[in-house]
Amino acid sequence: MKKLQKGFTLIELMIVVAII
Questions:
Q1: pLDDT digits (tens, 9 = 90+) for 1-20
Q2: Are 16 and 1 in contact, with CB atoms under 8 Å apart?
């Protein structure tokens, strides 16, 4: 993950993991 947004929430992390 090269694009890291500020304020990366746990929910967004779960969504990314779900996509993977």
A1: 556 666 667 888 889 899 98
A2: yes
Residue recorded with tokens 């967004």: 12
What distances in angstroms separate CA 9 from CA 6, 14, 17, 18, one per listed residue?
9, 9, 13, 14
Alpha helices in 1-20 (DSSP H): 10-19
- Name the pTM for this structure: 0.27
Q: How far apart are CA 4 and CA 10, in angstroms?
A: 13
